Amino acid sequence: MIHKLSQKNLLSKKHTQRYRQCFALNRNVAGFNILKKELIYTLVSDKSDGAFIWDIDNNKYIDLTMGFGSILFGHNYTPIRKEIETQLAKSWSVGPISPLAGKLAEKITAITKTERVAFFNSGTEAVMVAVRIAKAVTKKKYVVFFKGAYHGTFDPLLTLKKNPQTNMAQESIPGITQSILNESYIFDYGSEESLNFIKKNKDHIAAVLVEPVQSRNPSFQPVSFLKELRSVTEQSDIALIFDEVITGFRIDIGGCQKLFNILADIVTYGKVIGGGLPIGIVAGKSKFLDVIDGGAWQYGDQSFPEVKSTFVAGTFCHHPLAMAASLKTLEILESSNGELLQEINLRTAYFCTRMNEFFKENYPKLSMVHFGSLFRFVTPGRYKELYSQLLLNGVYVWEGRNCFLSAAHTEEIITSLEDKIKLSCRQLAEQGIIKLKE
Ligand code: PMP
Where is 230: in which H helix or E strand? Predict the structure, then answer.
């Protein structure tokens, strides 16, 4: 397999080697294993359309990465591209505020049942600001989050290690020092222990940050725990932050808030809404968003921004191209009346069911889990080689292994995908890497 894949991805590998000296990219060492080093590189691609990408060797792949979940309608989707092109012809500069930003804020608040919205450039930034405003409003310090979640690369959330006695986050990555983690507490997701800790330490906890359904563990959907969390945080003046960077505008136009009928205090969004352009959004109750600008006031009377503000900013926040693409995304989603998302979700569910039947019968150690249109292969041990075999057979899954179907993944493409998965399993078995009915 190593030889065949190296041949197929010749230019991707050459490119990786050519620029490694000057271009530091950790994706090029993800899962590094000296015995498998020839398979450690990330695909280099400059063309995508619909459900497909092409690498620089001009190989075509069914894309399951879909911009890490930022592409919902398919790559190069004409209505989004046209919107970006139209805006590009007008202006792609920042400085004065784009007239699209207010319009987008209004739309988001209406769709997500939030009161106010602020724009940033990435999910990480949105999470960072969400935590900051929670601390500013509650005037408390601690943040509780959960093992298995991914909230981006904001330093106080960058570890999953904890002190087993205190549950305080513990340093595990060079550069993320303990003092940065001293206000962060980690618990098993869904645990009674976390609820007890929150109740007991309510006077110190500013926020509970939760990825309602963790992208790394999508089959765990603890609705009753989330409801309990909502009730405990509400009674304790703790901000409940839903990180819906993946689930927002994907599982439902109203995200997990709508699906589970739980209103958080602050919600972060990103990915899908940007239509493929960089965006991060903090939405939520005025009580929290007001610390960004002092709250609402009017001209022509005695009103003024009464709330003491913290500070947020960013050169590219409200970038006009991202605003235009986001507005178009919402317009498309709204005009489909929920059907588009429902269809992608259903298609993913059927696909996973069919694959699980196949796996159960033939390769019982393999399985698939999903939440809406997000899915993952469950690949213990040697079964991880499935991803390289899939690449060889024309299916692209990035190193983080979160997979997504989009509106462009038609039944026909999914059938072809299923054939490629089955073929890959068979080939792995022929090479003795996995075993039939093991
Ligand atoms: N929160 C969640 C739930 C995410 O999945 C991600 C990114 N995958 C982030 C935050 C960070 O977003 P970004 O990569 O845009 O910074």
Answer: helix 223-235
**Ligand 1: centre distance to CA 52 (Å):** 23
Q: Which domains occur in the chain, in start order?
A: 2-76+339-430 (3.90.1150.10), 78-335 (3.40.640.10)
Mean pLDDT of 197-209: 98
Closest CA to 283 of 248, 231, 235, 323: 248
**Which residue is closest in CA terms to ligand 1's atom 1?**
151
- The pLDDT, as a whole number, for residue 1 is 85
pLDDT digit string (tens) for 228-266?
Answer: 999 999 999 999 999 999 999 999 999 999 999 999 999
Compute, in angstroms, the gap from residue 89 CA to the centroid of ligand 1.
Answer: 30
Residue 152 Cα to ligand 1 midpoint, Å, equals 5
60-84 tens-digit pLDDT: 999 999 999 999 999 999 999 999 9
Tell me, what's the pLDDT at 74?
98
**Residues sharing a CB contact under 8 Å with residue 22, sequence separation 6 or more, in sequence order:** none
CA of 209 to the centre of ligand 1 (A): 13
- How far is 332 from 73, CA to CA, in rounded Å? 9
* Cα of 125 from ligand 1 centre, angstroms: 9
Residue 422 pLDDT grade (very low, low, confident, very high; cuts 50, 70, 90): very high
Instruction: Please give the number of the atom of ligand 1 that sits closest to the Cα of 123.
Output: 12
Tell me which residue of 242, 266, 313 sits closest to 135, measured CA to CA: 266
Strand order in the sheet with 52-55: 45-49, 52-55, 60-63, 395-396
Mean predicted confidence (pLDDT) in 21-35: 94
Atom 8 of ligand 1 has which residue's CA nearest to it? 152
- The set of protein residues with a Cβ atom below 6 angstroms from ligand 1 is 68, 122-124, 127, 150-152, 211, 215, 243, 245-246, 270, 280
* pLDDT at residue 94, as a whole number: 97
Q: What is the DSSP letter of 380?
A: -
Q: How far is CA 265 from CA 38, 229, 272, 322, 363, in A?
A: 47, 12, 21, 25, 44
Cβ(375)–Cβ(354) below 8 Å: no
- Hey, whose CA ends up nearest to atom 7 of ligand 1? 152
| Cα separation, 197 vs 181, whole angstroms | 17
pTM of the model: 0.97
Give the C-alpha separation, 61 to 49, whole Å.
Answer: 10
CA–CA gap between residue 282 and residue 45 (Å, rounded): 31
- What are 103-124's pLDDT values in tens digits? 999 999 999 999 999 999 999 9
Atom of ligand 1 nearest to the CA of 149: 3
